[in-house]
Design a protein that fits this description.
The chain is an alpha+beta fold. The chain has one domain: 2-Layer Sandwich (Beta Polymerase, domain 2). The protein is 48% helix and 13% strand. It contains eight helices and five strands. It has helices at residues 14-29, 33-45, 60-72, 77-82, 99-112, 123-128, 156-172, 179-193; strands at residues 49-50, 89-93, 116-122, 137-142, 148-154. Strands 1-2-5-4-3 form a five-stranded mixed beta sheet. Strand 4 (137-142) and strand 5 (148-154) form a beta hairpin. The protein is globular, with a radius of gyration of 18 Å. The two termini are 34 Å apart.
């Protein structure tokens, strides 16, 4: 397993604890059926389309790798596990002309069902400031039980750009990649983003959390 390269496997019970933590988190996210129904219903009712729904669950090996990387930086396993907000990730696609209204209407629909938007990052705004390489609205929601999940809003163009950039992004996020190479990757991904139109009114979506 690749994540074993970034941790000290000689530490007593580390591997057992890591695998148990991942198992428990994986077991919890498998119970997201009712959650998915609420999300799909809200998006469908407002004219959007779900994208990548069969792949909404983060793979256990991916979670283990992320936890191990954070532990190598000094976090505890418990803290590193708690920081994973995208163990379940949903992606909705709206037409460019309806994107902003779609975001607000889905948000209102979910709030009526007891969901809370605890974080929102307007990547369109961040892209214009030079701090982001993709365009989207990325949110973290919490259901009534306190479970958190990621919810991304895209247009067809922004989703396509994300898919094109994905292999580069996977290299970009590696801690071992030199800074000058990271900067090159970042610039390349931002170039792809220049071809993604900005939906009307999207700059009014405020980042928070």
């Amino acid at each position: 397993m690749p994540f074993l390269k970034v941790i000290d496997i000689t530490r007593p019970f580390f591997i057992q604890k890591l695998l148990l933590t991942v198992f428990i988190k994986s077991f919890k996210i498998r119970g997201s059926i009712s959650l998915s129904k609420d999300i799909v219903s809200a998006v469908d009712n407002e004219g959007g389309t779900m994208f990548g729904l069969p792949f909404r669950l983060k793979q256990p090996t991916s979670m283990a790798g992320k936890i191990a990387e954070d532990v190598a930086k000094g976090d505890s396993i418990e803290d590193a596990s708690g920081e994973i907000r995208d163990a379940v990730r949903y992606t909705a696609i709206f037409p460019e002309e309806n994107f902003t209204d779609g975001y607000y209407k889905v948000k209102k629909s979910l709030e009526k069902k007891g969901y809370e938007e605890v974080r929102c990052k307007n990547f369109y705004e961040m892209y214009e400031a030079g701090d982001q390489c993709q365009k989207a609205v990325q949110c973290v929601y919490k259901d009534k039980s306190g479970y958190v999940f990621e919810f991304q809003f895209h247009t067809v163009d922004s989703a396509g750009a994300k898919e094109v950039n994905h292999p580069v992004y996977e290299e970009f996020r590696k801690a071992t990649v030199p800074k000058e190479i990271k900067n090159k990757y970042f610039g390349n991904m931002r170039y792809i983003g220049t071809h993604v139109p900005v939906p009307r009114g999207v700059m009014g979506i405020k980042s928070h959390g």
